């Protein structure tokens, strides 16, 4: 008797992204939407793949993989938008600064 193996069709990682179908402007330069974008990234099952793809693609001026990709005086920088201390909450950020800690850990 011959058996046939049925496999799921290959799914690309972005098809599993928490942000699929959402407004892409959340992830660009406007810091007003970053908090929403980062909250989406925090629960995303493919956050690491997104971060790797953004690094490989040379993205700039965008939030991906819960990090901000910027190009400044010191060249391209990747700033994590997840608290360095607890790793479970977004960092504090304003129009001009990005902290390394969430408001709770910063106290």
Write out key terms for the chains shown.
107 residues; alpha+beta; 3-stranded antiparallel sheet; 3 helices; 22% helix; 14% strand; globular
Quick description:
A hairpin with a 2-residue loop joins strand 2 and strand 3.
For the report, how would you describe the main beta sheet? Answer: 3 strands, antiparallel
End-to-end Cα distance: 68 Å
Would you tell me the overall average pLDDT? 82
Order of helices and strands: HHEEEH
The strand line-up of the biggest sheet is 1-2-3
Shape: globular
Count up the helices: 3
**Unreliable sequence segments:** none
Indicate the topology:
Blueprint: H1 34-42, H2 47-57, E1 62-64, E2 67-72, E3 75-80, H3 103-106
What does this protein structure show overall?
This protein is α+β, with helices and mostly antiparallel strands and 107 residues long. It contains 3 helices and 3 strands; from the N terminus they run ααβββα. Strands 1-2-3 form a 3-stranded antiparallel sheet. Strand 2 (67-72) and strand 3 form a beta hairpin. The longest helix has 11 residues, at 47-57. It starts with 33 loop residues before the first helix and ends with a helix. The model has no long low-confidence stretch (mean pLDDT 82).
